[in-house]
Each structure stands twice: as structure tokens, then as C-alpha cells.
Write a structure and sequence with these properties.
480 residues, alpha+beta, Immunoglobulin-like, Cytochrome Bc1 Complex, Chain D, domain 2, 7-stranded mixed sheet, 6-stranded mixed sheet, 10 helices, globular, binds heme C, binds copper (II) ion
Length: 480
Amino acid sequence: MCCSMRPTAVLLIALIGMTPAASAQAGPVPVDTAVLAFAPRVPLPITRRRPARVVVLLEAEERVGNLDAGIEYPFWTFGGQVPGGFLRVRQGDLVEFHLRNHPANRMPHNIDLHAVTGPGGGAASSLAPPGREAVFEFQAAAPGLYVYHCATAPVGMHVANGMYGLMLVEPPGGLRPVNREFYVMQGEFYTDSVFGEPGLRRFSMEKALAERPDYVVFNGEVGALVGPGALTARVGETVRLFFGNAGPNLAASVHLTGEVFDRVFPDGGQTPTVGLQTLSVPPGGAVIAEFAVEVPGTYTLVDHAIFRAFNKGAVGNLRVEGPANPKIYAGRVSEEVYLIEGGVIQTMPTPADSAARALTLTERLDRGRRVYGRTCIACHQANGQGVPGTFPPLAGSDFLNDNPRRAIGIVLNGLTGPVVVKGTTYNAVMPALRLGDDDIAYVLTYVLSQWGNSGAVVSREEVRHARLCPWCDASVPMPR
Ligand code: HEC
Ligand SMILES: [Cu+2]
């Protein structure tokens, strides 16, 4: 639920007045129009050199959006996106905060800003039922980077559904200039299904209580910072990352592969630490990390609690372009992005799931492409070309095309021991994959339709048959 929908959605912050001390020096009251930027964007630095009254309009909006391709979730948001708009003010500003609750919403909402000194961070003063607006004022007294979030009961559910964002209070002199600034926020999603299952998902209280998210993502969506969403910079530039962790449960271990964070302000505070590798960011915490990029290539931002990265979504990319820098790094420059592997790898198959409606061949191929993209691609690669010596190719595989039904057993039960594909012997392990009958039929039909393969079609009946009667085909191993 990110940048694609409303990349530059803008909320107004108007300067409508000045503190007495400021207006003494001021002349005519300046009218400033600033924006609450949406991730990964950050509002421009404050150039004002004195405090002001800043009016903020932020609207709570409940809306269905994408948690991943083909996977929807009923998000609750600040400003229509997850994370909510990034608010940037200056130390000493008086913030007049208007929280609106969209009339089409069903829930009351409020806001707790960690930058606020006062009860509940503003929560009690800002509670608004659908169709109402609450207004309160506070002084941005202490510089730093702060999380804000909804704090309406059940609090955890409002946070888990996406109601959070970051607020930066700049010190009077501003932050030191950099070339790029990015806004990234980590959050968990607890659903009524498993990672990668298409459809409209719902919040699972059971999993939230058990602290077992299906998704851990950056900026509200699997892949928000991958491919066209990747962060970009050029060799020689300096980058500042504003990283927040919404939780609601898990501490983040923020790491950027191939980079050292030069200057870090732990918990968004005032004293920098130099030369860090992995940043601990608690739920409800944030960090400012600055670094120079010296070598071109694709860098990967992860939660280094690594299953969250490769299997639950917490991966993003920073693409650095520019001339090579052999003094610092002389190896091959990687252009490859890390791929999400998903959570379906298991040792034992589960019973068939049955999605009823018969799909057209085009629909089945489309489903198959998705299953491939979240399951097989991690090993067999984007165009089925495999990895020499490790993962056999599916593209033009004589082994596959000679006996497509044998492949059903391979996906169901895994494969180990020597296998000859296009004249080369592979001897590795493919784990059994926890996929339903339909998905296995779709993915094999898809694979067989691609990359010079035979075009054979695999039906769910054949898959069911193979599952129920694995010994019917001697090439399929017996289940344990
Ligand atoms: C974790 C890595 C991994 C994943 C994920 C994976 N495979 Fe494999 N696959 C392998 C390995 C390794 C082999 C070779 C096993 C051996 O040497 O016995 C293999 C072999 C095969 C073969 C037979 C050899 C060939 O090239 O024709 C087929 C067919 C196949 N996989 C299909 C799939 C499909 C379809 C998926 C997704 C639903 C999938 N695999 C997911 C690792 C994987
Ligand atoms: Cu709320």
C-alpha cells in the first residue's frame, strides 16, 4: 500500500501566524505552504530560521489497498497511505493539529505523536468519530525523529492495520545538508492466511497476540522498495535515511548490505554514533542514518532477522549508479535484486485445498505466473534458466518435458539425488513445497507454456491423483 496509488498526495501545512517574538522581527506574516510527504519521499528541509504556528491537516482513512501483488488488505491509514504522511517542523514551532476522520470510515481514530509533551501524546485530545474533526495544539519542543500512531482501542489493531508515520523536529540550525533523504517505515501484518495467498485478507487477532506476523514489510507493501520502487542515488552522494519501526510487536534490525552507516542518531536523538552496521529500532522507535555511497550497484535493505526479509517481505533496494570505484571495491558489480522466497517451503505436503471455480487457461497461466514468482523463482530464476551447478533449468528442460506428470510429484514431495537436465547432472535438494492442488497445476502449466517448453497442460485432477496415489507413478517418491 504504497507509492503507486498517490505518489504525491499532499496535505497542507499553512503558516497562519507567528509567535509574538517572531513577528517582532518579521514584517508581513509569511504564508508558507508545505507538504506532508508520502514514503519514500521526505518533505524539503525547513529554511525558516524562527518558530512559527504550523497548521497540520491529517485525515484518517480506511481503505482497501495492496499488501502484495494480488493480495489486498483493508488498511487503516493516516492520509490514505501506509505509512502516513511525513511531517517536518522546526524546534519551537507551535503545531495546530487537525485530525479528521473521514465520514466513510467505520472506526473512531486518534493520534499519539511521540514528539508531544502532554498526556497520551495528544491521543485523548484528538479522538474523532467518523465524520468529525478534532483539533489540539502542542509545541514541538525537542528536536528528533518521532513515531506517531493511532492509539484508539484496540490500539494494537489500529497500529497493525497501518496507522502510523514519522514526524521530524529539526533543530534550529537544521540538519546538515545531504544529497538524498528517504522515508522508510517497517510494519507487521497479521492475516487470516499465509504469506503470499492471493485474495482479500483480514486482520488476525490470534496471530497478533502470538506476535506471529505473516508479513513484515517496508512502506506498507511487499516490494514497495523493489524494482521501480527502489531507492536511487549516484556514486559520491550522501544519503540520509529516516527509518521508523511501527511494530506493533517486533524490534527491527536494520541493515543495508554492502554499506556501513557513517553517522547514526539512535532512536532519532541528538548524539551521533559513527560506523554502525545493523541498527536496532524498537517498535515505536526511529533512527536517522547517514552514509555516503561510493560504489555503484544494487544494495539491499533488510531486517536482519533474516527470515522476515526473504520470507515475509522486509527487503528493499538502493540502486546506486555511477562510475566504478576500484580502490574501494574491485569485484563484479551486482545488478541483481534479492528475491522474496515466500513461506511455502516445508518438509511435508498438506492436504489438498479446493478452490472451486473453473478458470480459463489464461487465468490459470496468470495464477501460475504468480505462484512461480513467489515460489520457484528464488531457485529456478526469472526465466527458468536456473543457476549453473546448483539449480537445474526449467527452460527447455528435457527432463521436465519428457514427463510433465513426474514434475507434479517433484513439487509435491521435493526431489533429491542425481538428475540429468540438458546433459548436465545436478545433485542437490529441492524441498517439498506447501502448495494446493490448483496452484501446482497452474504453476506447472505456466512453466510448460514458457521458455521453449512443450506447452503441455497439467490439471488439478492429475495433481490430486498424484497426491492420493504417489506410488501410481514409480518416478514419484512415496510419502513418509
Ligand atoms: C529452494 C529451491 C527450489 C525451489 C523453491 C524450487 N525448486 Fe525445483 N529444483 C530445485 C533443485 C535443487 C532441483 C534439482 C534436485 C536434484 O538435484 O535432485 C530442482 C528440480 C526441479 C525439477 C526437475 C529438474 C528440471 O529442471 O526439470 C522441476 C521440474 C522443478 N524443480 C520444478 C520446480 C517448480 C515448478 C517449482 C515451484 C513450484 C520449484 N521447482 C521450486 C530447487 C528448487
Ligand atoms: Cu485508528
